[in-house]
Amino acid sequence: MAAMTYLQAISDAMRQEMRQDERVLVMGEDIGVFGGAFKVTDGFLDEFGPSRVMDTPLAESGIIGSAIGAAVVGLRPIAEMQFADVITGGFDQHVSVAGKMYYRQGLPVNITVRLPSGGGFSGGPFHSSNPEAWFMHAPGLKVVAPSTAEDAKGLLIGAVRDHNPVVFLEHKHLYRRVKGDVPEGLYTTPFRARVAREGTDMTIVTYGAMVHTALEATEDLDGASVEVLDLRSLVPLDEEAILASVRKTSKVLVLDEANQTCAAGAQVAALIADRAFEDLDGPVRRVATPDVPIPFSPPLEQAVLPSVDRVKEAARELLEY
Amino acid sequence: MSSSNTETATVDIVMPQMGVSVSEGTIVGWRKQVGDWVEYEEPVCDISTDKIDTELPSPAAGRLAEIAVDVGTTVEVGTLLARIATDARPGEPHASEHDGEREPSAPPTSEAAAATGETPAPSTDAPAPEPGVAAPDGDEGRARRRYSPVVMRMAAEHDVDLAQIRGTGRGGRVRKQDVLAHLEHGAAAAPAAPDPPLHIESPYRPEPAPAPRAAPDAPAPGPAPQPEARVATPVPTGHGEPLSRMRKSIGEHMKRSLELAAHCTTMVECDMSAAERRRALIGTTALPIVARCVVDALREFPALNAWLEGDTFTQHDGVHLGIAVSLGEDGLIVPVVRDAQDLSDEGLGRRIRELAQRARGRALTPDDVRGGTFTITNPGQFGAVAATPIISQPQVAILDLEAVVKRAVVITDADGNDAIAIRPMTMLCMSWDHRAIDGAYAARFLTAVRRRVESV
Question: Which of A136, B243, B333, B417 has the fewest CB atoms within 10 Å around its CB?
Answer without folding.
Answer: B417
